[in-house]
């Protein structure tokens, strides 16, 4: 006689605020917003960002959890269409409650319609794109063109950290001349328009859907604004849970998180566990 598999255990947050956030999510999943970074959180970090793909268990975890919560939002610096492709989200069963907030919320893809909405790209990005080849010659870097931003990856260089540090000042100057900012990450320096970040995107979407609690999982410096947004929502009375997809490259999120899991594999196991424990 077969029996149903035992539910996966839920890891325990190490902070009181995190425990309150998890309790609120389990008690009221229909009002819960699950916010997730993509690279490093749903997908392992790879040397070539074009080859990044969601963890093999990510789709099944999202499909199990998404119908039980108000919404799942993938919040990423990538173009929305790239995240949808790399995550294999389009037409996936069970993901009707999924949105992708690409370019830090400047773009939006909704699983219900399959459509992307986005304003025109700012002109400063074209100017930066034209000047980068001369500035980066001989550095061994790789430029990822995100349409509304450009990202300079140093992971392929002979000395990734040394090149990263050497390029910070000149890239910051280049960005400033064209009205952009530089956002550092895990061996990447992204030049993008100011005034948009994952915190702005997460807050706006949480208010749009009337979220009663918010979980956010990330792994990199670009996720710190989303952490700050959850902290601000908690101060307003909306419970929240901060999850770090752990790595040895970035410690700032680990120090701020309520719960640290073992990279993308830990994230998908957490999502599966949440789905098991929600009635």
Biggest sheet, spatial arrangement of strands: 5-4-3-2-1-10-11-12
Considering DSSP H and I runs of 4 or more, what fraction of the residues is helical?
25-40%
| Coarse structural class | alpha/beta
Largest sheet properties: 8 strands, mixed
Beta-strand proportion: 15-25%
Q: How would you state the average pLDDT, rounded?
A: 92
Helix-strand string: HEHEHEEEHEEHEEHEHEHEH
Q: What's the number of extended β-strand segments?
A: 12
Give start-end ranges of low-pLDDT stretches: none
Number of helices: 9
Overall morphology: globular
Gap from first CA to last CA: 24 Å
Description:
- By secondary structure, the chain is α/β, with parallel strands linked by helices.
- Helices cover 37% and strands 20% of the residues.
- The strands form 2 sheets. An 8-stranded mixed β-sheet has the order 5-4-3-2-1-10-11-12, sandwiched between helices. A 4-stranded antiparallel β-sheet has the order 6-7-9-8, with helices on one face.
- Helix 3 links the parallel strand 2 (71-75) and strand 3 (98-102).
- The mean pLDDT is 92.
């Amino acid at each position: 006689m077969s029996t149903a598999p035992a539910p996966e255990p839920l890891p325990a947050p190490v902070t009181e605020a995190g425990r309150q956030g998890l309790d609120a999510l389990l008690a009221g999943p229909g009002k819960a917003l699950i916010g997730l970074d993509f690279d490093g959180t749903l997908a392992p970090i790879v040397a070539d960002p074009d080859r990044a793909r969601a963890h093999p268990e990510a789709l099944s975890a999202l499909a199990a959890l998404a119908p039980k919560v108000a919404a799942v939002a993938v919040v990423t610096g990538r173009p929305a269409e790239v995240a949808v492709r790399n995550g294999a989200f389009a037409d996936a069963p069970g993901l009707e409650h999924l949105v992708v907030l690409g370019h830090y919320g400047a773009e939006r893809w909704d699983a219900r319609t399959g459509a992307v909405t986005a304003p025109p790209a700012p002109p400063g990005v074209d100017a930066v794109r034209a000047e980068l080849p001369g500035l980066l010659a001989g550095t061994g870097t790789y430029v990822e063109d995100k349409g509304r931003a450009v990202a300079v990856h140093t992971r392929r260089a002979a000395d990734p950290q040394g090149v990263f540090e050497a390029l910070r000042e000149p890239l910051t100057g280049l960005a400033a001349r064209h009205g952009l900012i530089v956002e550092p990450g895990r061996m990447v320096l992204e030049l993008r328009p100011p005034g948009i970040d994952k915190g702005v995107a997460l807050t706006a979407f949480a208010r749009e859907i009337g979220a009663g609690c918010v979980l956010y999982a990330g792994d990199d410096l670009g996720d710190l604004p989303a952490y700050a947004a959850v902290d601000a929502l908690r101060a307003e009375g909306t419970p929240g849970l901060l999850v770090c997809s752990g790595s040895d490259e970035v410690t700032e999120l680990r120090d701020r998180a309520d719960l640290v899991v073992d990279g993308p594999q830990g994230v998908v196991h957490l999502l599966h566990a949440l789905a098991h424990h929600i009635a």
